Amino acid sequence: MRKPLAAAALGLAALTTDPALADEAPKLVTILTSPDAQTQLMGMVLTMQSMQQGAEAYMLLCGPAGDLALRDAPAAATAPQKPKGMSPQGLMRKIMAAGGTVEVCAIYLPNKGVEASALLDGVGAAQPPHVATRLLADKTRIMSF
Length: 145
Hints:
This protein is α/β, with parallel strands linked by helices. The protein is globular and about 40 Å long. Strands 4-3-2-1-5 form a five-stranded parallel beta sheet, sandwiched between helices. The chain contains seven helices and five strands.
């Protein structure tokens, strides 16, 4: 009697599960603030690895990490690092090319004293209400570096 009851319960659960929710990709929000190039690169590496495993990625660059998004980025942002010769900005560009979203904090540009035109193509300025929505969304993981 137990086996048929368990099978019926599993069958009912399968019928009541929303297929759209079952197929929804996990969401990843990476918040990067560190000025350290190795820390920045590791944040990029883990974000890319998460994307390769099916996650939808959003990256928020604040404070010194916002400099990664500049067209005229500091040398540390573009210098190759071991073991693969990748730079933080280089991997960030690959994340964007793979469908990841990258934004700088809303207060980055005015405090840096530059306009949005100073940012790489495809990088925007975050809007706090939209970031809050991302942070609170179901199936969201948050990494901070």
